[in-house]
Every structure is written in structure tokens, then in C-alpha cells.
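W.,

You were right to be curious about this one. When I first looked at the sequence I had no strong expectations either way, so I just let the prediction run and decided to look at it fresh. Below is the sequence, 214 residues in total, followed by the output.
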Amino acid sequence: MTRPITRRMSRHATNPASQLGATLIEVLLAVVIGGVIMGPLVGWILVGYRQQDTTQRRIADDFSTNLLETYFTADVQNGSVITAGGDDCPGGKGAAVSGDPERVLLFSAVTADGSSRVAYTINPGTDPTPRPSLYRRVCKVTPGPGDTTRGVALATNIGMPTGATLWSEVVTCSPRSDRGAADTCGQVTLRFTGRSAEQITLSATKRVGAPWPP
């Protein structure tokens, strides 16, 4: 007599629950754990980006300050006639425009030999940001046919100093201590707000003895 063959199916194959994958509770736990891990991680990334931006702004301010110290100090010390406002150089980058509050001539200095003029201006120029730039412009007092004005931005993306309402207040002049009122602009101070929102202040004193302004 032939016995019938009985095949046993695997318990996993016949158990419908084994085909369902992760349960709802497991999914919720994964989401919660992922949120706990990712939340601080995203926060650290954002803080890192902010610190990097702040660092870059301070580096830009340090570079501008060093560049200004090199030119500004020498221009004031070697100037024979320094005037708050004064005369601008013709043409070139960063020119001041009469009546324009964002294209302002801060001061001008005539060199000791009287041949050249240096003018410091505030001007938006071609910078893509809405905040202006501080320009240094050099020209001949009596330009010849081939003479042109050389203009360069020494500090970009700057703001007004604390308490100022006009760009002309970026510069202040005072008499040199040993000359009194005879030299109305013997000491020059520049103040403005840099990219890092910190105020930058530079001062220089004229050392040329003559000629003095009337």
C-alpha cells in the first residue's frame, strides 16, 4: 500500500505577518531618533556657516584697515595743504558729484611739492552691493594732455560711523596741536563702519612745515 506524501510548508511562508516589513511603531521610532540626531547636526552646520561669514567679514575689514593705514597716513603726513572737502580730481573712478549725498568728497591733500593732489571720496562705484566704497584718487594739480586720474577703492561695503547721519561726517579735521588755529586741518580722522559692523577709526597728523593754508 502506497503512503501519501505530505509536504510541510515553512512557517515563514505561511505567516502573513512576516511579509509586512516594518511596523508603524518601528517607523515612528526611526523618525524620532533621526530627528534627535539631525536636529543638532543641522544646528552645528548653520552655526559653522555663520561663523565663517563673520570671519570673512573681519578678514576683509583687516585688509582694508591695513591698506588704508599705508596710504592714508602717508597722504596726510606728506600733505602741505589739506582741506575738508576741497577740490576733487577730474574723472576717474570714485569721483564725487555735487549734490549727490552718496558721492561725497571727504578731503583733499596737496603734496609737499605742490604738484599732485590726493582726494578721498565716498562713492558707490561699480560695487554690486548697495553700500558705498571709500576711494583714493590721485591727479596732477595742473594736469597735462596725457595726465589722468587714478582712482582705487581702499575699503568697500562700508557704512556710516556711529552717530553720523551724513557721509561727509566720515572725516573730521582739527588743528595740529603745535600750530593751533593756523592749520585748520592739521589732523585728520576717518571713521566708518566695516563689513563686520565694527567701527574702524584712523587718524594721522600732517608733518610738513610749509606752506600752510591761510
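Here's what jumped out at me. The chain is about 25% helix and 25% strand. And, maybe more interesting for your project: The radius of gyration is 34 Å.

Coffee later to discuss?

I.
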